[in-house]
Amino acid sequence: MAPLFVLLGLLPLAFAGHDYGQALTKSILYFEAQRSGYLPSTQRVQWRSNSGLDDGKANGVDLVGGYYDAGDNVKFGLPMAFTITMMSWSVVEYGTQISGSGELGHAMDAIKWGTDYLIKAHTEPNVLYGEVGDGDTDHYCWQRPEDMTTSRQAYRIDANHPGSDLAGETAAAMAAASIVFSHSNPSYANELLTHAQQLFEFADKYRGKYDSSITVAQKYYQSVSGYFDELLWAAVWLYKATNNQYYLSYLGKNGDAFGGTGWDMTEFSWDVKYAGVQTLVAKLLMGGKAGQYTPVFERYQEKAESFMCSCLGKGSQSVQKTPGGLIFRQSWNNLQFVTSSSFLLAVYSDYLTSAGKNLNCASGSVPASELLSLAKSQVDYILGDNPRATSYMVGYGTNYPQQVHHRGSSIISIKVDSSFVTCRGGYATWYASKSSDPNLLTGAIVGGPDAYDNFADERENYEQTEPATYNNAPLLGLLARLNGGRSGYNQLLPVAIAVPKSRPNTAPVTKTTPAQGSSSAPIAIEQKTTTSWNYKGNTYNRYSTIVTNKSDKSLTDLNLSISKLYGPLWGLTKSGGSYSFPSWLNSLPAGKSLEFVYISASQADVSVSSYTLV
Question: Which tens digit of pLDDT belongs to each residue from 398-426?
């Protein structure tokens, strides 16, 4: 515990060489090209138009909206939900940096486009529609989504046809997204949370693999890992969203039986969530949340660190890398594994840094910074630092794929030429064309190079030139982290997502109170001990302090007086002799709370010095 008694230097770390801010903007823009349904007036990808407007009609439900998964026109529920979970995790973890890039509103729009659809798809507590269209009929045709004539049959899971993996991932997506919208749109966040809790109960009570119920998904998104990982994944996100001890105990009681503490992973993907679960549970452990389940959570953390060490090549097993240094798992859409793994490397690096710890590998202790360096090297490779000097993000740099395996991108926009593109005619006219795509699929991450860094920019080369939403989703947070640094706050603390709009122009009310007592009328302060330990004969405590705005206005310019503090504090900014909001938080909305923590032999005195109500 000794490193905890030294305040960490949390200065932002910026990188040079690539314009990560520009790449972030483009990576979010890509999702607008994948939209299905009625496009909004704010649509920026202008070569797209409305599509899939009768989705769900044959089944008597409204399933208009959502995302096409890749270069086709099918809406596959499992990868779509994982995409939304990872976009949400990006915002939850690095929302401040995304906001600093001016992209928080766009990122939240991208998440909400997905969650709006998931709400529609969850028509009853134990019914979830998991696919619209099918891969076989869709792949027989090459049509832009605005023209598609293929089947729009919808497929569902229910109590008699379960799908715990699909329901669990969808619960995780909605729970994670509820955190994103908890401040800017609390009623919507509560709606998402209600769906998430129902879906988790459905997934846990009626167990089974979704592709045994929705068999048309087997050839395209087969659930090889089963559903135990998704049950744990949903539980950890529901705990983060609700702080309900039931979900914490679920992780503690089922970690061993469900494989969370047993699997040494080298993959994190839409199918296999164990490494993500292990990383998040390790964060709970380092944040003092494990309680009676500490021994179990330590085993989760051992597996999380095994994943990190494997990526570094310093564990008992090592992930394969290309001669150019790219993480390599398979020839078909390998970059999906690169972006998801790199995201875990970055967040775990920040968790370790916040805890003042190193990574424990078979080769010895490894500085947390090495994880971030590896994540950065993978992003730089994608953006062009590779043997081919090729950017695998469409529209970034000067040398990027020109023949993307994507129906909408490869066929002239319906706004330019409204002539109907037939099912098979699209193959003859557009798929077979050797010309560059008529529409730029800006920001898309394609499948990427092979095990030897080779890449063929050919439309029929779907293994390498087809993009997918889940390739991009982890990049939102990763690019924001590389662009904006750590933003100076402890990554183990709860995050308040900023509201991406200007504050109302009302006259502020300023009050000053003496530095005494534990609260003032509109502000409540509650302290509690979360963990204790003995170090060299001395007892130390970790205190959690909750500051709640009890007024009906937004709280700004808060200044706290803290005395009798004999250890480090995280979650506030110190200025002179007082403490104020952390750099990532400008105000505290009515009814909301912030948490800061400190370590001390005894409880400190915390009181309000001044504040402003707006």
Answer: 999 999 999 999 999 999 999 999 999 99
- Where in 536-582 does DSSP place strands (E)? 538-549, 555-563, 569-570, 573-575, 578-580
C-alpha 106/C-alpha 102 separation (Å) is 8
Phi–psi pair at 284, nearest 5 degrees: -60, -40
Structure tokens at 568: 């480090």
Beta carbons within 8 Å of 176's beta carbon, 6+ residues apart:
84, 85, 88, 89, 92, 237, 240, 241
User: Residue type at 449?
Assistant: P
3-state DSSP call for residue 474? Answer: helix
Angle at 193 between CA 280 and CA 161, to 5 degrees: 90
Q: Quick one: which of 467, 410, 465 has its CA closest to 435? A: 410
pLDDT of 512: 31
Residues marked active site are found at 72, 405, 457, 466
* Percent share of the chain, pLDDT over 90: 76
CA distance 506 to 549: 18
Give me the pLDDT at residue 599, please. Answer: 78
The amino acid that residue 75 corresponds to is K
At residue 139, the 3 state secondary structure works out as: helix
Comparing CA positions, the residue from 351, 448, 339 lying closest to residue 93 is 351
* Separation between Cα atoms, residue 220 and residue 147, nearest integer Å: 23
Q: Report the chain's C-alpha Rg in angstroms.
A: 24
Q: What is the DSSP track for 178-221?
A: HHHTTTT-HHHHHHHHHHHHHHHHHHHHS---HHHHSGGGTTTS
